[in-house]
Each structure stands twice: as C-alpha cells, then as structure tokens.
Task: structure prediction
Amino acid sequence: MSRRTSRPQGPAAPRITSASPCPCGLPAAYGDCCGRFHSGGAAAPACEALMRSRYAAFVVRDAAYLLRTWHPGTRPPGVDFDPAMRWVRLEILDTTEGSAFHSTGTVTFRAHYTDDGRPDSLHEKSRFVRHEGAWVYSTAVFVD
Result:
C-alpha cells in the first residue's frame, strides 16, 4: 500500500500483542503471522504474505517495516500515519505469480478503513519484485 499523508502524528496505534488476532485477516495470532515478519524473525515467502504483512504494518504503524520492505528505487524518505485513519479489514481479491518460483507478482486488494469515523476503502493492485533475494513492494495502481 502506498497511502501517505502529511497530517501530524496523532494517537498511538491500536494495542496489538503477539497473542492478538493478526490484523491481516488470516486465522492466526499476530506473533505467529505478520508479527514474525515485522520483528525480522522471518521474511515473507510470497508476495501475498508480504502484502498482508504490510497491511498489518499500517495497522500497527510500523514505519520501519514498511520502509524496509519497499523497493529502494520507489521508497519514500518516510511514512506518515494519518491519526484519524483506522485500518479495519483487508480483502485479497487476486494474486498473480509471486511465489518462491517467481521474481515478480501482483496482489489486488481492498483495504477497508475509517477516516474520522467515516468508512471507506482503498482498492489497489500492488506490484512486488524480488530484491536481493527478498520480496519487496515496488509500485501500485489504484483501481478506484
């Protein structure tokens, strides 16, 4: 996801522990799912896993992980989190390639959020590539 904002930092991210349900939507605890990628304990094995972990990083406001998993050719200098925005649900709509046997892949998704309490969503087709052996986010096309 490439959503950025210039609003000032606000309240802290929602409190998610390693035992909390993972925000990415898979039926696993955060520590066993995306949390292990965020901590550096493992690398996402496929572009869908990276997409899910990047969504979860937006939920927990882990800017370091987002930047670390962004291709250096398209990576911004920083990530600003909108204090009025709360990510609430991720839907994976389609994937192409992006497995251990590929060097590129795409994930089309809809990320649902509220902005100042108003529901909305981001519909995007993200492109992922392998960089130095790891999956990284490269670019995106907004579908809506």
Observations:
- The chain has a mean pLDDT of 92.
